[in-house]
Specification:
Bound molecules: nicotinamide-adenine-dinucleotide
Shape: elongated
Number of domains: 3
Largest sheet: 10 strands, mixed
Number of helices: 13
Strand order of the largest sheet: 2-1-3-12-11-4-5-10-8-9
CATH class of the largest domain: Alpha Beta
CATH superfamily of the largest domain: Isopropylmalate Dehydrogenase
Number of strands: 20
Structural class: alpha/beta
Length: about 475
């Protein structure tokens, strides 16, 4: 008997969780449930994290969480609990299989069978945001080598173990050369270790277009967090409904299983939600905890139910469906189908449980890191960059001189264009006069000089080279 933590969540959460639990119990899953309360009620009771210590303890003890969707209250002050759970428990791999059920569920893409593997801990989801001037706010995008190595290796291991042929990487490294560039670089490195698996890279915009139009071209797709979040919803929706897909969030010690959709407040309490996403999540969970026979039984029953045309409203069509049912009735139909195998859709047999383990990250030898300059960000209310440059050149030191000013990344000095629109947020680059290493005290001198002239410095970024390679991007037009 395995004890797991469950959370019924908000909106349609309790309905789809009750439906899923009834199927798990009827199928003979060897599971005991430890229920925790998380989400909207906890947020609104004054706990801005949406989860209390007892709930954390239950998840950490049981190591497995089956979670229905939760509502994140809109507006400031509330952090997304989903993101907090994923990051706090180190659930680095978010796996989202999206498969068409053609000809039983209406879809433009009958051949679709894609698994999206989304990095789950970093990228813009650090939620590190600051307002720096009247006009400009900032969100930090953090991408780490350990984060990239773990998720890319997980994707290739997944492909290898599940007999999939190709892994595609989507990034935007033509623009974000450092962050997405690192993800792409690590992808190329890890791909070399898997010569039997085809590796492919696409810029995320054309990749997304091709995924939406020709998903049969893809097999496993690995992406940084934000692109994976967006495109896995697209992928699930084009199989037939966002309500069909489940996901696993895998870490080294804990794992969380959930539907990919949200709490759907528009249809909550009406017994019309499709519980399939959470049922699929529960099947992923059963496989994860080694109850593969029960997982097989439920998946074949679910496929048979879909094949028999017993459909919830989101996938019901007069041509393909036989019966439109509610959430509870759909679960009852799956229970009735336990023991059956689908006739046309491929039956599954998860007899051989698959566990994917990734070796712990080995920190590389430190690079030679040289400090060669500083970007000083200033809040300046003027409009003419030449005026700002005149002011800033007064703070040059014997080591550091102003070499460039950008506004939202576009070079406006020297030789800027009058056409470039400027806000009150200026990035001013001071670079080593002889292109050699400078000291922290040289930076302090620049800041002291700026302070003396009344320049409003809002933040600084050190400029480094690593083993002689520039570790910062150029300005647009530089
Ligand atoms: P949503 O996924 O809840 O709903 C989008 C649309 O899909 C709605 O029209 C909804 O009715 C429909 N839909 C979703 N699930 C369905 C199902 N099982 N059956 C039938 N139709 C279904 O997205 P949203 O409206 O943007 O978000 C609502 C709330 O959910 C927000 O508070 C958001 O923060 C939260 N959310 C939670 C999670 C999570 O807990 N993992 C994920 C995404 C969004």
């Amino acid at each position: 008997m395995q004890k797991i933590t469950i959370a019924k969540g908000d909106g349609i959460g309790p309905e789809i969780m009750n439906a899923t639990l009834s199927i798990l119990l009827a199928a003979g899953a060897q599971i005991e449930f430890d229920e925790i309360k998380i989400g909207e009620k906890v947020y609104l009771s004054g706990n801005s994290s949406g989860i209390d210590q007892a709930a954390w303890q239950s998840i950490r003890n049981n190591k497995i969480l089956l979670k229905a969707p939760i509502t994140t209250p809109q507006g400031g002050g509330y952090k997304s609990l989903n993101v907090s759970i994923r990051k706090t428990l180190g659930l680095y791999a978010n796996v989202r299989p999206c498969k068409s059920m053609y000809p039983f569920v209406q879809t433009k893409h009958p051949e679709m069978d894609v698994v999206i593997i989304r990095e789950n801990e970093e990228d813009l989801y650090g939620g590190i945001e600051h307002q720096q001037t009247d006009e400009v706010v900032q969100c930090l995008k953090l991408i780490s080598r350990p984060g990239c190595e773990r998720i890319v290796r997980y994707a290739f291991e997944y492909a290898k173990q599940y007999g999939r042929k190709k892994v595609t990487c989507f990034v935007k490294d033509n623009i974000m050369k450092q962050t997405d560039g690192l993800f792409h670089k690590v992808f190329n490195e890890v791909a070399l270790e898997y010569p039997d698996i085809i590796s492919q890279h696409l810029i995320v915009d054309i990749g997304a277009a091709k995924l939406a139009n020709s998903p049969h071209l893809f097999d496993v797709i690995v992406m940084p967090n934000l692109y994976g979040d967006i495109l896995s919803d697209v992928a699930a929706e084009i199989t037939g409904s966002v309500g069909l897909a489940g996901s696993s969030n895998i870490g080294t010690s804990c794992a969380m299983f959930e539907a990919i959709h949200g709490s759907a407040p528009d249809i909550a309490g009406k017994n019309i939600a499709n519980p399939s996403g959470l049922i699929q999540a529960a099947i992923l969970m059963l496989n994860h905890i080694g109850q593969n026979d029960v997982a097989t039984k439920i998946q074949n029953a679910w496929l048979s139910t879909i094949e028999d045309g017993i459909h919830t409203a989101d996938i019901y069509t007069a041509e393909l469906s036989k019966e439109k049912v509610g959430t509870a009735e759909f679960a009852a139909a799956v229970i009735e189908h336990l023991g059956k195998t689908p006739q046309k859709l491929s039956a599954v047999n998860y007899a051989n449980g698959i566990t994917i383990t990734i070796p712990p990250y080995q920190r590389k030898k430190r690079a030679e890191k040289l400090l060669t300059g500083i970007d000083v960000f200033v809040d300046w209310q003027g409009y003419n960059p030449n005026e700002l440059a005149n002011l800033l050149q007064q703070i040059n030191t014997t080591c550091l001189s102003l070499t460039m000013i950008t506004n939202r990344g576009t070079k406006v000095w020297p030789h800027g264009f009058d056409e470039t629109f400027c806000t009150d947020h200026w990035r001013c680059r001071f670079y080593s006069n002889n292109h050699e290493q400078i000291q922290k005290k040289d930076i302090i001198q620049i800041l002291t000089n700026a302070e003396a002239l009344g320049i409003d410095v809002i933040k600084t970024e050190n400029l480094y080279t690593f083993n002689g390679v520039r570790g910062f991007s150029l300005g647009q037009g530089e």
